[in-house]
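A quick aside before the break. I want you to see a complete sequence-to-structure record at least once, exactly as it would be stored in a machine-readable document. Don't worry about memorizing anything.
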Amino acid sequence: MTHGDLLRIATLLVALLGLYVMWVGLRQTRQLIRAAPRRRRWRFLPRLMLLFDGAFCACALLILSNFLMLPLRVAVNAVVVSGVTLFLLTVLVAFTLPRLKELEAQAILDSLTGLFNRRYVEMALEREIQRWRRYRAPVTCLMIDVDYFKSINDRYGHPTGDWVLREVGKVLKDGVRTTDIVGRYGGEEFIVLLTNTDARQGRALAERLRAAVSAMRLPYPPKSSPNIQSGGALKLTVSIGLCGLHYEREEFTASEVIRRADDALYQAKRNGRNCVVSYVDGQEVAQQLRAG
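That is the input. The structure line, written in tokens, reads:
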């Protein structure tokens, strides 16, 4: 075996080692991207592609020129063409990412409040139900409705109503944990999923949310309404219906959980608003609804 053969073998081993390092790096980077917050994941892709463009070109040059014994000029041309192609693909991805981020936001976020939309929350609730069935991890669903919201729209106009919904959404989001999910269900209704929270704990948190909204004083000029207190502040209240998953039942679906929370919300409205009602084993609320 000549010295040239040994050199080519050594070069091949270095190239293979480089490819292995690239593969390991890809796996580690994939785990890093998964662990990163959703909104920051997109930032990794262009940098990652540029990094491996250079590594790919270096390994390809070593393999083509030494192991396959191609002329250096031919090897360089092949690497340049492949490198330029990968670079153009990287640029294309970099320019496409903002649009992909925008499409992702449109798919899962409510355009008015910036909270999660109804479709995303329902999908998240299905996932939480699967976790409950497998690990018995409790989850509680809150349905929240802004009291007398129609009168706000009628008296001050829809722009004011939109502003009120945004402010209420901020209070709800600030009042829960980062692991909980807050969304706008539709109209003036909001929905909150409390992960790893049973019905008793969920009721306590619902009471805190109700009190936080009641403590809001939104500054607004009109003073010709009973909802306007001294200083021109708009006072708001919310009614909350609650449903938690029960350990003895396994046939819960997302639509059933939401329906029961909505039944409890309806009873909270009948009880005079600005209160929290829990759906307990389908008994308390169902009987009260039949009695009405």
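Two observations worth writing down. The chain has two domains: 3-107, 118-291. The CA atoms of residues 22 and 52 lie 7 Å apart. We'll return to this after the break.
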